[in-house]
């Protein structure tokens, strides 16, 4: 049993809740998942002024206790003590935006009515002052009947006072009792009017105006400048992913190679050395190389979210998304899916329209995620000549760009068809709060990146390491008897499976080796690269220099139509076990997951086949 | 709504048709034309009779969506939803 008191942080979206959570707990945070749902559980340790520990829980931001999205359902269930795997909090810290009291107080009143001990953190008091609002904290506290502490989370002001207030609860013993109340005030209008009355009574207003935000929106939401700005931002973002990542990626590559060599020298020749050097280090190394690209992409996404621009991007994209039956809200998860479909699919939990959300989940794997990059990079380097088609526009880069375009086009087409068939329903509305612009807090961005890096490395260390080892065993054993005429790999277990699979993929131009690589690539797309490297290294009989010469090895073995078909296959094929698992959890079962796998594989098969035969017809 | 029958009806326009830079006061919201989900969201975002609104921006490719000030918040919504909100334009200060 955990005896540390649990205190939950609750509030509207855009109240500055996460910044306050980071200020209270520092880097001592744990990010996990609630059982059965993909809503993140963020908790952290905090020490009271007298040294006693408190566990802080950061609940997803919601507008009310009436749950309409999975995110809000978790907040609702935790506060009523109904969430599996969570204790009922002993006390609540309600975060409200001082510049938007009318609205945030409504949710606060709803929370106070639950009967748990509450403290209100009146956040962004500096902004309120700048906007011309003066708030009488004592009056507010008296009207609400709970302590009110003014804070500025981003400048760490009021944090000690807030901790002291939490400590007072603990001292008076209130924190130990935890009465749960089932009665939720859900008459929004009545609550809203009470909230407004309290807000008006405690606020002196003088020329309220969000000057900065209004001026910035004049550009960001301008009918002509807005889309240009968005396109420019996206261009810089993708450019940076390739340009900035080159140096750190090369360093990781060199580091892994040195590690492999050191391990190779330190160990005696034999099974274990082969397993560790060829299997583990080469395989996992091929994946970790992409950490810089993933982090750069996440850096931009975290930045766009922290500044408040992301909602503006959704606003600009809404009309285009509406044409395929989605809403601007879907743009945010789809953009995240360019880094990785998993956080993208998890981000769909903020979409409250179930059909809109389901469609977004089903097309998210079509966004070109960073795991496809290793596959694209190797094949393009091996088969696409390095020359310029136009001054400054290289053919290799153009092909890569076209693969991205193909993914997006496929996704839009899929959404268009899905919304008219299996996910048919009334068009989703688009209604979002547009928060004020804010300077991002570097500390919070770094913390977010750190958490993403850990998740990625954990994945590389578990699923990818595991499948690479399994593949290595399957490809290496059993060893052929002396005098076996064919390549050694044909005698191995993997070779035999691939030989059986080959007739199925021959019509779309794939060979036995590709069939072989596609099996472990079900775990993660990038494994296809390490699988091909392993297969050809063992095939050629040399056991050093794995990935370095893969480009050369491919060049002689595959025809150009085969290579192009392989690229197009990876645009569509849902080869990622983690994505499949997340979709299953998010859609509560195998029905939609199975549907997604089916339509994406069929799409991949048809598109790869069409590419193969079209290339042959064109004489490539 | 009883109020919508009085003389003020004549001056009411819906939020989607409110000219830019003109502040209005919400006179009436026709919840029946909104889906349950849209209605709840709109309430949660602070739309209610008596609240000041102003149309601030419109989307790039035509008319949808629009960004409006609702109370102290800026809210993005589609014109179809904005059409459910009847507004009484206020004289410019």
Structure description:
The complex is a heterodimer of chains A (620) and B (93). Chain A is of the alpha/beta class and 620 residues long. Among the domains of chain A are: 6-209, Rossmann fold, CATH 3.40.50.300; 450-617, no CATH class. Chain A has helices spanning 17-25, 70-79, 101-112, 125-130, 137-144, 159-172, 188-202, 211-220, 225-243, 246-266, 271-288, 291-307, 309-323, 331-336, 341-347, 354-363, 372-383, 395-420, 442-476, 493-505, 512-518, 527-540, 550-557, 560-572, 577-586, 590-617; strands spanning 6-11, 29-33, 40-47, 53-58, 91-97, 118-123, 133-135, 148-150, 203-205, 388-390, 393-394, 431-434. A seven-stranded mixed β-sheet of chain A has the order 2-3-4-1-5-6-8, with helices on both faces. A two-stranded antiparallel sheet of chain A has the order 7-9. In chain A, strands 10-11 form a two-stranded antiparallel sheet. The termini of chain A are far apart. Chain B is of the alpha+beta class and 93 residues long. Chain B has one domain (3-89): Ferrous iron transport protein A (FeoA) (SH3 type barrels, Roll), CATH 2.30.30.90. Chain B has two helices and six strands; from the N terminus they run ββαβββαβ. Chain B has helices at 36-44, 79-82; strands spanning 13-14, 23-29, 52-58, 66-70, 73-77, 85-89. β12 (431-434) of chain A pairs antiparallel with β5 (73-77) of chain B, so a sheet runs across the interface.
């Amino acid at each position: 049993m955990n005896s540390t008191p649990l205190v939950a942080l609750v509030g509207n979206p855009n109240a500055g809740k996460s910044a306050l959570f980071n200020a209270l707990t520092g880097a001592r945070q744990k990010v996990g998942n609630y059982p059965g749902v993909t809503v993140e559980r963020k908790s952290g340790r905090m020490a009271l002024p007298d040294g006693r520990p408190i566990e802080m829980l950061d609940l997803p931001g919601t507008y009310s206790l009436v749950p309409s999205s999975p995110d809000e359902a978790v907040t609702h269930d935790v506060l009523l003590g109904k969430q599996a795997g969570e204790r009922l909090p002993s006390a609540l810290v309600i975060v409200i935006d001082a510049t938007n009291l009318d609205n945030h107080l409504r949710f606060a009143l709803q929370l106070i009515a639950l009967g748990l001990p509450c403290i209100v953190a009146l956040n962004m008091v500096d902004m309120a002052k700048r906007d011309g609002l003066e708030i009488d904290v004592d009056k507010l506290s008296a009207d609400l009947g709970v302590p009110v502490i003014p804070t500025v989370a981003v400048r760490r002001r009021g944090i000690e006072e807030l901790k002291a207030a939490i400590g007072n609860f603990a001292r008076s013993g209130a924190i130990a009792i935890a009465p749960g109340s089932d009665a939720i005030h859900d008459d929004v209008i009545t609550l809203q009017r009470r909230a407004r009355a309290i807000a008006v009574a405690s606020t002196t207003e003088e020329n309220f105006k969000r000057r900065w935000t209004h001026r910035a929106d004049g550009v960001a939401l301008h009918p002509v400048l807005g889309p240009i700005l968005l396109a420019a931002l996206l261009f810089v973002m993708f450019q940076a992913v390739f340009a900035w990542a080159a140096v750190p990626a090369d360093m990781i590559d060199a580091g892994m190679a040195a590690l492999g060599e050191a391990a190779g020298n330190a160990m005696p020749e034999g099974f274990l050395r082969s397993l560790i050097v060829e299997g583990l280090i080469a395989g996992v190394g091929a994946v970790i190389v992409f950490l810089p690209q993933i982090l750069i992409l996440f850096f931009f996404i975290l930045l766009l979210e922290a500044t408040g621009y992301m909602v503006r991007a959704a606003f600009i994209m809404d009309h285009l998304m509406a044409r395929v039956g989605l809403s601007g809200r879907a743009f945010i998860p789809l953009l995240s899916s360019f880094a990785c479909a998993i956080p993208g699919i998890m981000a769909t939990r903020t979409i409250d329209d179930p059909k809109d959300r389901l469609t977004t989940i089903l097309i998210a794997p079509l966004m070109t995620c960073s795991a496809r990059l290793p596959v694209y990079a190797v094949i393009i380097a091996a088969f696409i000549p390095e020359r310029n088609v136009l001054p400054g526009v290289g053919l290799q880069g153009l092909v890569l760009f076209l693969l991205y375009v193909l993914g997006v086009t496929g996704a839009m087409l899929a959404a268009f068809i899905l919304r008219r068939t299996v996910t048919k329903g009334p068009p989703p509305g688009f209604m979002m709060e547009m928060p004020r612009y804010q300077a991002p807090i570097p500390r919070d961005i770094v913390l977010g990146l750190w958490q993403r890096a850990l998740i990625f490395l954990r994945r590389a260390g578990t699923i990818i390491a595991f499948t690479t080892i399994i593949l290595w065993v399957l490809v290496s054993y059993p060893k052929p008897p002396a005098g076996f005429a064919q390549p050694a790999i044909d005698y191995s277990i993997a070779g035999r499976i691939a030989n059986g699979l080959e007739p199925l993929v021959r019509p779309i131009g794939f060979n036995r080796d590709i069939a072989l690589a596609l099996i472990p690539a079900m775990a993660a797309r990038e494994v296809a690269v390490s699988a091909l490297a392993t297969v050809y290294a063992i095939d050629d009989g040399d056991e050093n220099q794995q990935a370095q010469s893969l480009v050369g090895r491919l060049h002689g073995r595959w025809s150009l139509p085969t290579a192009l078909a392989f690229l197009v296959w990876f645009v569509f094929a849902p080869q990622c076990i983690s994505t499949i698992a997340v979709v299953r959890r998010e859609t509560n079962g195998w029905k939609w997951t199975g549907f997604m796998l089916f339509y994406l594989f069929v799409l991949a098969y048809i598109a790869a086949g069409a590419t193969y035969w079209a290339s042959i017809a064109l004489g490539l | 709504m009883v109020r919508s029958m009085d003389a003020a009806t004549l001056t009411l326009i819906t939020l989607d048709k409110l000219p830019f830079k003109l502040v209005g006061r919400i006179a009436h919201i026709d919840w029946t034309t909104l889906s349950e989900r849209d209605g709840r969201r709109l309430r949660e975002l602070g739309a209610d009779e008596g609240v000041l609104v102003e149309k601030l921006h419109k989307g790039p490719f035509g008319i949808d969506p629009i960004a409006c000030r609702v109370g102290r918040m800026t809210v993005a919504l589609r014109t179809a939803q904005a059409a459910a909100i009847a507004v009484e334009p206020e004289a410019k200060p």
